[in-house]
C-alpha cells in the first residue's frame, strides 16, 4: 500500500483519504490528528502539559470498577464532579486538597462541564491535576457541551460549530489534549440529530475525545441518535448522565429500561443524594451554608417544594430511611442512598460532590454498605419509598417462564 506524509505523520494513502473525506472541521487540506505536528503547533500549551513530570502514581485501593455502558472503558463506581463546587464555592488550594484526597482513595474519574462556573470549574480542575502531577493515562476526564460560557448565537447548543469549538475550548481550560468522554449536556431541538451525531463522531475521530454520551435526554432522543450512528457507521453514545436517586426513578429505571437491554447503555449518575435531601439535613429546614442556602437561585423550585405536601411526604420518607440505615445497616442515610444507586446494574458510576476532603471520605463509606443491601433490605427500602416504576403492561396475560428467551428491544 502506498504511503503519504501528512503533517509529519506517515500514513497509508487510504487512511489519509479517509480523514480528508471527513471534512476535518472545515479544514480540508490538512490532516488534523492529535499526533500531528500541525496539531501541536496550534496547541503548544497542551503538548507541554502532557510531558510533565509524574508526581503521583495512581493506586486503585479498594475502589471497584465497571465498564462504561457497552464500551471497554473501566470507570470507578464513585467519581467526583465539579458542579456548584469546584471553581464556584471552592477555589484555590482547597480544590487541590479535595482532588488529592479523591485520588488517594481510588477515585480517578472527574466530571466537568463548560457551563460549570462559566468555565472556571474546568480551569481549576485542569490546574490542580497538572500541579498534582498525576499521569494523564491514569485518570478519566469528562466534560459536557451545551450552554457555553458566554453569550452569542453560536456559543451554545449542539450545532456542529459549537460542539467542535466548545470541545476545543474546554481542552484549553482543562490543560489536556483530550477528554475521555464528552457529553451533550442537553438535547438541542433546533439542530438536526444527524448533525449532532456526526459532530460528536468527528470529535472522536480527531482524538479530542474517546467516547461521547448524553445527559438528561429522553429515551426517544437517545434511540434516534443510536439509529443514525448505526446507519452511517458513526460513533454512538455509550452513556447517559442522568439524575437518579431514591425519590426520582421513573426516567432512569422506567423510561430507559429498553435502552439498557438494546444498547447496554450505562449511566453516570448525578444528584444521587437529591441535592442533599437524602442526607437528612433538610428535615427541619434549610441549614446555613448548605447547598440550598448557597445556591438559592439554582434550587428555587426545590426550596419551594420542601414546604409543599409532596415535599413534606419526601421528608417523612427520608426519616424512615434514616431509621433503617442507622438501626439495621449501622450507617448514615446518605451512605444508604449512595449505595442503593451504585447497586443498580445499569449504573456505571455515581458522581459525588464535595466541598471538603472529609466529605469525600465520608461519601466513600457507601462502598461498605453496597454488600449489605441484600434482597431483604432492598424490599424494606421499596416498601418505604413505594415508587418503583412499573414494567410494560401485561394486559392480564400470565408471565413467561423465567428461563425462556425474552424479546426486550
Automatic annotation (TrEMBL):
It comes from the Eukaryota. Keywords: NADP, Oxidoreductase. InterPro entries: K_chnl_volt-dep_bsu_KCNAB-rel, NAD(P)_OxRdtase_dom_sf, NADP_OxRdtase_dom. One of its GO terms (molecular function) is oxidoreductase activity. Residues 80-384 form the NADP-dependent oxidoreductase domain. Belongs to the shaker potassium channel beta subunit family. This is NADP-dependent oxidoreductase domain-containing protein. The lineage of its organism: Eukaryota, Fungi, Dikarya, Basidiomycota, Agaricomycotina.
